[in-house]
Amino acid sequence: MSVLIKGGLIVTSTGSYSADVLAENGKIVTIGTDLRCTADEVVDAGGKYVLPGAIDPHTHLCMPFMGTYAQDDYQSGTIAAACGGVTALIDFQIQQQGESIRQGLDRKMALAEGKVAIDYSLHPAITDPRPEVIAEVEKAILEYGTPSFKIFMVYDFRVDDATMIKLLEQTRRHGGLVQVHAENPHIIQHMNEKLAREGKLAPYYHAVSRPNIAEEEAVARAARLAEFTGSQLYIVHLSSREGLAKVKEFRSRGVGIHAETCPQYLLLDEERYKEPGFGGAKYVMSPPLRSKESNEALWAGLNSGDIQVLATDHCPFDFHGKKDMFGTDDYKKIPNGAPGIETLLPLLHSEGVVKQRISLEKMVDLLATGTAKMFGLQDKGAIEVGKDADMVVFDPTRKFTITQSKLHMNVDYNPYEGLEVTGMPELVFSRGMKVAEWRNDRVEFIGQPGHGRFIKRVPLRG
Ligand code: URP
Ligand code: ZN
Ligand code: ZN
After folding, report:
1. Could you give the CA distance from residue 277 to residue 281 in angstroms, rounded to a whole number?
2. Could you give phi then psi for residue 270, rounded to 5 degrees?
3. Which of 17, 125, 168, 298 sits CB 3.0–4.6 Å from 231 for a disulfide?
4. Whose CA is nearest to atom 7 of ligand 1?
5. Sign of CA dihedral 447, 449, 451, 455
6. CB neighbour list of residue 271: distance below 8 Å, 6 or more residues apart
7. What crossing angle do the helices spanning 212-229 and 161-174 adopt, rounded to 10°?
8. Is 324 left (phi over 0), alpha (psi -120 to 50) or beta?
9. How far from each other are the two terminal CA atoms of the chain, in whole angstroms?
């Protein structure tokens, strides 16, 4: 199977140029001007961008959480991803008590088998840090192809600082990365008790209960421990100006700390929690939405290089039936999370590039090239000879109004409902196979569940 994409603007993380791209048997084999070769399919990309498929390194597919499940499974979640121009994702595998890392990975890979429509990898999330599990980290990096490990500093499956130190040591030795959900649980507990005494239990108080200082303190503590051990640390879903200030401070001291943020922390703010009735529950996620000042600080953090990756934290729960299942009279019982995987690329292009907050090349770095490097996806993340032909022919002028009913995520609402974006995927390829295409008024999935593969990642150094 071969495909020739002619006349598009190829966008890389460092520059853009017009050329043709030939892909054969799933790989990019030639890039050049006026390529005169035959192919099974020829695509005219005049006026379009040719982007590397986006990589979402933060998803929670079919994750059991807060008495229910994140609703997208490997089929619906990866179909939605493909339709949004995401051609690889790294999902979290939350370890169950008593389980080894290997057993946890096998359990999650069985859920993906035959269903996954794009390539994927897994980050083991360590919740039961028995000595044999800490020892197994070496194998996970060198044999299982999963060199990044998530730990939570909050929730009832959090780990303590001693575990964080052990994991930081192990990952430094073998070429891994520790990812942290950085919030201080004691500050949150204190606020929860205070708000309960005052009878403040509406969705709005979810944000009040998790103030910026909860993130700032946890980022600083994790960074200090990474400095102590000389390890690489990655802050997931960074949300606040104060948290970012700590990332900057430690980076300027030479600490190996990296950060990710998500569209919701750039584009939405805490005013959303004031939507009438129970509407604020749609935005109950952790960390919560912050102020407009934090939104602006995070945009600046993308441009300064202090934040290197954009991810979604895709974790959808229906507004009717899930968000309101237990939590109508207490924000603490509302499942935390929101949908995002299908809108990642259109939102960053429209709100970032079109509005001139970031360059096109920065967008490609944040969504693909930098992400692939951060997480050891050596065959992905760029339109380059030898890479997997994960490509998006992107129409930068196409208008689309975000409407839940025109998207594929398995959820009954969208946080950006009614927002018009400029720029949408026209065609999406996963290893040279067409998986999604713009038809009439939306992107349609035209791929095959089961086409996606588990990708073994390489160890990470420095
Ligand atoms: O609210 C969120 N973010 N839900 C998913 C779990 C997590 O903390 O990432
Ligand atoms: Zn988290
Ligand atoms: Zn998450």
Report:
1. 9
2. -65, -15
3. 168
4. 286
5. positive
6. none
7. 50
8. alpha
9. 38
Q: In this structure, what token pair is assigned to residue 125? A: 């999330």
Indicate if ligand 1 lies below 6 Å from the C-beta of 181: yes
Strand order, beta sheet including 148-152: 54-59, 86-94, 119-125, 148-152, 177-181, 232-235, 256-261, 309-310
For the record, the structure tokens of 206 come out as 């979810």
Q: Is 60 in the pocket of ligand 1 (CB under 6 A)?
A: yes
* 30 and 68 co-located in one domain: no
**Two structure tokens written together for 278:** 């129970």
| Structure tokens that stand for 385 in this block | 């000879």
Closest ligand 1 atom to residue 58 Cα is: 9
Asked, as a colleague might, if the bond just before 287 is cis with ω within 30 of 0, I would say yes
**Does 340 contact ligand 1 (Cβ within 6 A)?**
no
CATH classification at residue 34? 2.30.40.10
408: Cβ contacts below 8 Å, ≥ 6 apart: 76, 79, 80, 83, 342, 445
**Torsion over CA: 110, 412, 154, 184 (sign):** positive
C-beta of residue 149 within 8 angstroms of C-beta of residue 92:
no
Tally the domains of the chain.
2
Buried b (16+ CB within 10 A) or exposed e, 282-303: bbbbbbbbbeeebbebbbebbe
Question: Which pLDDT score is estimated for 462?
Answer: 52
**Residue 184 identity:** N
Q: Determine the pLDDT at residue 400.
A: 98
Pairing of strands 420-430, 391-401: antiparallel
Write out residues in the chain with pLDDT < 50, as ranges.
none
**DSSP line for 386-407:** TSB--EEEEEEEEEEE--GGGS
Q: Which atom of ligand 1 is nearest to the CA of 181?
A: 8
> How confident is the model at residue 461, as a pLDDT?
72
Helix 185-197 to helix 212-229 angle (10° resolution) is 160
Domain carrying residue 440: 2-51+386-397+420-445
In a domain, 38, yes or no: yes
Q: pTM surpassing 0.85?
A: yes
Whichever domain contains 101, its CATH number is: 3.20.20.140
Rounded Cα–Cα distance for residues 335 and 316 (Å) = 9
